[in-house]
Amino acid sequence: MKSKSVKSVNQYKSVIIVCVSLFWPVCNAAAQLQDVKFNRVSGSNGVVLGKITCITSDRYGAMWFTDQTNRCVTRFDGTIMTRYQYDRKNLNTQGGKYPECIVADSAGFLWIGYYGLGLDRFDPATNIYTHFGHSDNDPESLSSDTISAILIDHLGKFWVGTDQGLNLLDEKSGKFTRYRHNPTDSLSLSHNKVRSLYEDKEGTLWVGTGIAWDRDNKGGLNRLNRERNNFTRYLHDPDNPNSLLDNKVRAILEDSHGNFWIGTRGNGIHKFDKKTGLIRRIPFNSDGAKGLIRPATISPQYSGEWYL
Question: Domains in the chain: how many in total?
Answer without folding.
Answer: 1
